[in-house]
Amino acid sequence: MICLKNSTQGAEILVDYCAGALDAIRTAELEAHLRECASCRNEVEAQREVWNALDVWPLVDVSPSFETRLEARIAEGGKSWWRPTWSRWLPVPAAAAALAAVLLIWNPGLKQPASVSDKIDVKIDVQQVQQALDDMDLLTPVGRAL
């Protein structure tokens, strides 16, 4: 028997075993494996605890109209309450964006900014650049941890 943790069907086998739905041959193989594998034994015990907790959980009666309402919601095709509201307000931001674009493009008083290279005399210090790159490499693991 392959260990439940190493098998792609391990979860299904575990659930079937705990539900008593596993055939006799596979049940015997699994029980032989459980005698040898503490990890799988722990998994079976954890699954049994879940099943025992669910058995103790009180059943709740659903309303008589539950199935009718559920079928109606399914028939709606996943319509959401916010879609009509959202689609009603969509033209407002679209119009604002269009107006802003028009004002930015057609404003004759707007001067083109000078390029950065026209204003700044660029002097590159190689050691300063190397130090900045080293500092960024040092801070990268800290950023990932946050």
- The shape is flat
Distance between the termini: 43 Å
Portion of residues in beta strands equals under 5%
The secondary-structure element order is: HHHHHHHH
Structural class: mainly alpha
Number-wise, the strands total 0
- Are there runs of 5+ residues with pLDDT below 50, and where? none
Query: Averaging pLDDT over every residue, what do you get?
Result: 77
Helix content: 55-70%
Number of helices: 8
Q: Rg to the nearest angstrom?
A: 33 Å
The main sheet comes to: none
Summarize the structure.
With 146 residues, the chain is mainly alpha-helical.
Characterise this structure.
The chain has a domain at 10-56. 68% of the residues lie in helices and 0% in strands. It has helices at 10-19, 24-36, 38-56, 66-75, 82-89, 91-106, 116-119, 126-145. α1 packs across α3 and α2 (24-36) packs across α3 (38-56). The mean pLDDT is 77.
